[in-house]
Specification:
globular
Length: about 425
Amino acid sequence: MLRIPQRLHNLQMSPMARGVARIMTGSVAGQGLVILCYPVLTRLYDPAEFGLLTVFSSVVGMISVVSSVSLFQAIPVPPDDQDAADLAWTALAIVTFTTVVTAGVGLVAGEQIGSLLGVPRLADYWWLVALTVFVMGAYLVLSEWMVRERSYGALARRNLLMGVGQATTQVGLGVAGVTPLGLLLGLGVGRACALGGLLSSGGLLRRARPGPRTMRAALVRFRRFPLLATPAAFVTSAGLEVPLLVVSAFYGDARAGLLGLTVRVFSGPAQVIGEAIDQVFSGESSARIRNPDGTVAAMTRTTVRRLLLIGLAPAVLLATSGPWLFSVVFGPDWSEAGFYAQLLALPYLLQFAVNPVSGLLLYLQRQGQSLGWSCMRLVFTGGGPALCAVLGAPVWVAVAALAASHVLSYLLLYVLCVRAARAADAEYRRKGSPA
């Protein structure tokens, strides 16, 4: 009879392990469907429409990540459930306020913003920008509430339905000729599945809604999140989104669409795999920091090395055959995106390998280094392509500058993580191992 090792048996029986497995199953299925739909979408929508989607999602992403002033991150903290519910309702109220402000900005300056970013049509869809900001902001808040409630089944179903909702909306409306609205609408439809955090058996609607005084008290009590976490979240998001906005502003929506597809091809699979690795690494590294054994640096190097090996073959394939591969999979209009993939293969390989270990800086109380690195990346990735555009360089030079900026940024991030881990290991050895 086959005997299961006790350690593996414990993992199989662990509620946390089962929860993670259920969530990841939903994520892989949902995001896998979205990725598989890209060859269909590129034949239903043209590069300019993808460019509008790229700018739309970048603007929405940067606003929504700070729409609750990072209060959603504090939801798991309060020991009392009602205190946590007060905090969640406060965060939703702030998301609503941010949505109203976003809508007002669109009314006043929507046309100017669209022209500045190279997509004048953005002004026609600013109503959807505001609506999607609300949906995505609420998604972050309600997701964190479901995590607190350990509603792992609801999270798994949400992740699956998020992919199904996005894919069916974008493909269905594209087939019906409702373009480019189908692309834009799909972004928010999937996230609306997070409403399960309101409606489920443990949802917020079953908790008393706080009054203004209670909300104010919750905001004051957790003020460190708005003051410290919000700037960091915005800078981190901007480091990824600003380069796409720069390309759109200087080179037009079609080029932004081509680059946006390239980024999605890289980031989709990397996000699914990277999240799983990040969860494992976070659990292991935080445990070794709490109970040090002098192996944090070795684990960090080993994790990055293994991820490099996992991502090497796809990166080499795209670096050598990008234009041909994109033409076959996405259609002949997208071969230029394959050339961008050749330029970005190395930086995205480094991002895939290093990102999952970057949380180490936070666990080791190196928040200042983490924020400093995010600011530096924003300057490099936004400033490099912008400088190329101002000097009149062709778009491929701007993309090459973006690639070089990412390479330098993630090499530096790796060095920072390894140095921090070595310092923690050295501190453990200096104090001596426990008897």
